[in-house]
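# nightly structure sweep
# worker-07 picked up a monomer target from the shared queue
# config: single-sequence mode, recycle default, output format = structure tokens
# input follows
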Amino acid sequence: MDIRHRQPSGWRSATAWIFVAPFLVIFFVFTAIPALIALIYSFTDIGVADIRHPLQVHFTFLDTFARVLTNAGFLKSLVTTGIFVVVGVPLTMAIGLALALALNSGIKRLRATYRAAFYLPVITNIVAAAVIWQYAFTLRGPVNTFLAELGLQGPNWLGNPNMAITTVILLTTWRNVGTCMVLFLAGLQGIPADVHEAAAIDGASAPRRFLHITLPLLKPATLLVTVLMTVSYMNIFDEPYLLTKGGPLGATRSVALWVYEQFGHGNIASAMAGSYVMLVIVAVLGILQLRMLRAAS
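# output follows
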């Protein structure tokens, strides 16, 4: 190209900034600035009565964080969130991997239809899904009716604390398994077929090929899915809020739901401090997992 027809570098930079400007404006107005304000006010005693005069609050420094970290409700919600992560993440990943393996090699016909069907919960409206699940898991709902036909007594899915957290995990798994399936399927399709063919010729059985070929080559995708699912379950809010409102007896109250309730009660400083405590935990876990991802790739 003739140099005379090239645009000056300053013009190209200005054009790039013009395209980036809308995102930057939205990011700073709705994300960066509110996050900074929340961080500042988390070191104060701001409450609902101080909304009209936010500059007249008193700085308490780390006292607000100390109250949050010693709050029984917050600690219980932290344990509940940990249960969601420890149980939900492996369950979602295992089902997603099984579906990906079936779609990659086991299912020969209507693959696109099955992929769309398994991914449908990801794009389904969570409010509508929660209403259906509430009806399905009531004492006389379809689930318990089906169990009764098998001669089994259905539990109180939403009224018993242990069963309620199980139901929330099932709903969250149903909603997120499609994402895991797509990512695992992308990883499986990136594995050369001739590697499996050579192993099969050498006499390696299907389970050995899965353990010694598929899983090691699938490690980058596995770690990526682990990061995404961990962050998703750590920030879980929609499912427990819509399905059980955090009950019964706070058994399904996550940290995000606890923060939401603190805002509703007017404890704005505690809500902001709790949000940043959770942000630090998520950031630390994310950094550790991303380092594992970088080392595996």
